[in-house]
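Regression test case RT-17, inverse folding.

Input:
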């Protein structure tokens, strides 16, 4: 499924590369990320679990509280932008041979012509 174009950027389905092409879309993304984190904390989906160093970021660590199925999540966010820097899922599948873990690290790059050009070259 191709990404849906929006005036200020691109809405990308899960599992696809996101490319933000309008400078205002970065600010929109930061506001949306902060709002989602506030909502998840206020409804009890996540709890604050301190700070940890993730690469060069002293990140806020959030741990899932309300388990929706056989998995839990740990999310680390940049305190200056509230954008994710790492997400880890832990699950237990009784059909498998024990628990599993999947970790994804995020790297956010400003949408300059050079960074967008490099991204386009990598996705072709």
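Golden output:
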């Amino acid at each position: 499924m191709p990404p849906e174009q929006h005036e200020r950027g691109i809405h990308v389905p899960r599992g696809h590369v996101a490319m933000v092409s309008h400078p205002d879309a970065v600010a929109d993304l930061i506001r949306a990320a902060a709002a989602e984190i506030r909502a998840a904390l206020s409804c009890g989906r996540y709890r604050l679990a301190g700070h940890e160093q993730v690469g060069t970021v002293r990140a806020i660590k959030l741990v899932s509280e309300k388990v929706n199925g056989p998995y839990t999540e740990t999310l680390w966010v940049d305190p200056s932008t509230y954008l994710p820097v790492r997400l880890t899922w832990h699950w237990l599948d009784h059909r498998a041979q024990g628990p599993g873990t999947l970790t994804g690290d995020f790297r956010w790059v400003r949408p300059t012509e050079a960074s967008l050009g490099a991204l386009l070259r990598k996705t072709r």
